[in-house]
Structure formats: C-alpha cells, structure tokens
Amino acid sequence: MNLSERDLLYNWHPYTQHKTAQFHPAIVRGKDSLLWDENGNEFIDAIASWWVNPFGHSNQVIADAIYKQLTTLEHVLFGGFTHDKAVLLSEKLMEILPSNQKKIFYSDNGSTAVEVAIKGCLQYFYNKDKKRTKIIAFEDAFHGDTFGAMAASGISLYTEAFKSSLLEVVRVPIPTQGNEQKAIEILENLVKTDDYAAFIFEPLVLGAAGMVMYKPEILEKMITICKQNNVFTIADEVMTGFGKTGKTFASDYLHIKPDVMCLSKALTGGTIPMAITTFCQEIYDGFYDDDIDKALFHGHTFTANPTGCAAALASISLLQTDEMQHNIQRVNASHLAFEEKIKNHPKVKTTRVLGTIFALEIKTKTAESYYGTMRTKLFNFFMENGIIMRPIGNIVYILPPYIITENQLQKVYQTIENALEIV
Ligand SMILES: *Cc1c(COP(=O)(O)O)cnc(C)c1O
C-alpha cells in the first residue's frame, strides 16, 4: 500500500465526507512554492497551504531559528513564567501593530485566538456587572470551528448541527458594493440596545466566504458606530495578517482601529501552530483588579511556546525585508494585469484583487454549493495541471506564497484560463 492508501485506514480528515471523498494525495516534500507527492509529481502551492505559508516551504531562515530554539529551550510553561522569545516577539509586535494594541495574549490556532477575543469582550462587561452578552458578526463570516468561533461564523454548513448550543450572535450583511447602506442601518439599530459586547469581522476580505471584499471606508464607519455605542470591535486578521492584503495588517488600511485583533495563519510562516489575540488598554484594564475572579481564566498548555515564538520572530524579520515587500508588490501587479486580461471573459462574473489575493467568480446558471460538482471538477483540473487550489463553489482564488516566481504565477493564470473552458 502507498501512503494515500495507508492514510485511509486511520486518518479522519477535516471537512471530509469519507464515504464520497476522493483520494488524498500524499505530499512528501516542499520547497519554496512547490510541493511533491509520493509519486514524484510536482505541484505549485497556489494557496500557500491554506494561507499559512507566505515565505515558501522548508524556509531555511525559519528552520534555523526553530532548530536553535529547540536546542536552547524548546518549551516552558507560560503560567507563572516567561521567556526571552515571548518578550522579544511581543516587543516586535508592538512595533508593527496599530498603536492602540497594548496587550498580547498567546494561544495555538485561529479559532482559539477568536475564543480569547470573544471571552475578553464578554468578561469585560461581566466584570463591570453590565449585561452585554451578545455578539454581532457578518453573514457568511468564518471565524473558526471551536464553539465561540463557530457561533460567530455564518456559513451554515459548518455550524448547523450545533446551532442550539451556540452563543447568541446577530448578523449584519457584508457591506459589499451596493449593500453598504443596509449594513450600516442594521448595525446602527442593533447597537442602540445595550445587548452587545462586540462586533467581530474579517477586515476587508472574508476568506472562507470566497474572498469577498469590501471597502475600508465602510468598515471605518461601522467601527465608529460601535465605538459610539460602547461595543468593542474585533478584527479577525487570522487570514489577512502579515502582508496578504498588501499592508502588514488589513487594519493598516483603516484610520480608526479595532479594539482587538486575532492573528494566526502566517504568524510562524506556516511552521508551528500558534496564535495571538491583541487587546487595547481599556479591555486589559477591565480585568486588572485585586480580585482574582476578575482575571481572564483562559490558557492553553502550549501558550507562547518558545519554539513557536522563535519561528514567528524569524517570519516577521523575513516579512520586513525589502525583498519580501517587493515580492508582495510584484504579486499584486501580476494579479492586476491578469484581472485586466480575464475580467471580460464571457464565463467570468466578477474578479477582485487586494494585495496578494486574487479571486474570480465563474458565471453559473444555478447557485453552486460550497463543495458542489463545479468545485470538484475545478479542483481536479488544477491538480491534473500541477497546481494546488481549493475553489469555493464557483469561486477560484489565488493566495500564493509571496516568493512564487513570475513563471509559476503565469502558469497558474494560464491554467485558470484553461479551466474556464471546461466548466
Ligand atoms: C482559518 C481562519 C480561522 C480559524 O483558524 P484555525 O487555525 O483554522 O482554527 C479564523 N478566522 C479566519 C478569518 C480564518 O481564516
């Protein structure tokens, strides 16, 4: 049996109906933008392995930092102790985060970063004996798969089975072009009621919804409305963080900053699972008390794992090089040129680009479901052509490692053009 066959004996994969699922290729090696399977087939990783890997696979700088840390101090508990890498990483983050972010809380993955953000906002009001127990979120949002994050998420496929056990969340339409006024009005009416602790959103781009984009000006308006009504704002930058949108954070496009930010995916350059929730001073102060009951009783065994912190420090240093910043601009320019070329294609409904993110919606006669037949046909076509992409329904997107070469990018574009002929 090969690896793919042995895999099926014991492994239960995420988001997978094993009865109808296709074969899972076994990847055995990665370098830069390329991955190789057990049969020696080569693939371009056009989605940076679920948006985690901006600097390429098997990056030497990050690998060296991890090795050094593993042989110096691989882990120490963060409850009651600290270590140099957490101190250094928090200091580094303070240099690059919006200036209102003052406190850093470490965890392990995007969902837990969201849990911490939501718990921080809910308990802030609880500590003050105020009854603000509900959350506001976008329709079609995705914030992760743990219970709090799932409650905030709006894609029913992921949450329907657990609906009766979830925190109360009220939804606002995504303020895409034409929906801005409606979204603002609904938000304004909600925040009047004193019921809400926080508004959580994916800033400027909703990833899992299909790279749905909206304008910074409208988000600034929504944040302002929340601030005027004492509702905290949480920017879930798990997908958008660390350069994806062309700036370090999507929140860098905003003049009015969110109170809380969630970071994970590209934090360690796709090496070690780690996440961060950052808070403004006001929320931290709401826990700061002589009474231990007012503390944030949340923690994970591997909180602020030193090896993860070392990987994050190396990743951020890579992101800050001129070379990487140039790569981000280059990928953006190539995306814009391809968008110009493809947007009037008869099978293309819309296209959108922000930073290193490109998305194209294919015209369909009927609504395409998330994991529908078009998606599978496209996925297989890309794999046959040596490209790893995960279309979402009828939406094809590219979110490549920033170091993808121009030739590789052109191959991805050409394959998308060819794919339009088979759907
Ligand atoms: C992926 C994602 C999450 C969840 O992160 P996990 O590490 O998969 O738990 C949360 N929010 C956004 C915006 C994401 O893209």
Automatic annotation (TrEMBL):
Q: Where in the cell is it found?
A: Cytoplasm
SUPFAM superfamilies attached to this UniProt entry? PLP-dependent transferases (SSF53383)
Which coenzyme or cofactor does it need? pyridoxal 5'-phosphate
Catalytic activity reads: (8S)-8-amino-7-oxononanoate + S-adenosyl-L-methionine = S-adenosyl-4-methylsulfanyl-2-oxobutanoate + (7R,8S)-7,8-diammoniononanoate
InterPro entries, alphabetized: Aminotrans_3, BioA, PyrdxlP-dep_Trfase, PyrdxlP-dep_Trfase_major, PyrdxlP-dep_Trfase_small
So which domain of life are we looking at?
Bacteria
Record key words, sorted: Aminotransferase, Biotin biosynthesis, Cytoplasm, Pyridoxal phosphate, S-adenosyl-L-methionine, Transferase
Pathway membership: Cofactor biosynthesis; biotin biosynthesis; 7,8-diaminononanoate from 8-amino-7-oxononanoate (SAM route): step 1/1
Chain positions recorded as substrate binding sites? W50, K265, G299, R390
GO MF, any single term = adenosylmethionine-8-amino-7-oxononanoate transaminase activity
Which Gene3D superfamilies does the UniProt record give? Aspartate Aminotransferase, domain 1 (3.90.1150.10), Type I PLP-dependent aspartate aminotransferase-like (Major domain) (3.40.640.10)
EC assignment: 2.6.1.62
Question: In which residues is pyridoxal 5'-phosphate bound?
Answer: G110, S111, D236, H300, T301
What residues correspond to the site Participates in the substrate recognition with KAPA and in a stacking interaction with the adenine ring of SAM? Y15
N6-(pyridoxal phosphate)lysine, modified sites: K265
Q: Which Pfam families match?
A: Aminotran_3
Share what the entry says about its subunit structure, partners included: Homodimer.
Belongs to which family?
Belongs to the class-III pyridoxal-phosphate-dependent aminotransferase family. BioA subfamily.
Q: What does this protein do?
A: Catalyzes the transfer of the alpha-amino group from S-adenosyl-L-methionine (SAM) to 7-keto-8-aminopelargonic acid (KAPA) to form 7,8-diaminopelargonic acid (DAPA). It is the only aminotransferase known to utilize SAM as an amino donor.
Q: What is this protein called?
A: Adenosylmethionine-8-amino-7-oxononanoate aminotransferase
Its taxonomic placement starts with: Bacteria, Pseudomonadati, Bacteroidota, Flavobacteriia, Flavobacteriales
Gene encoding this chain? bioA
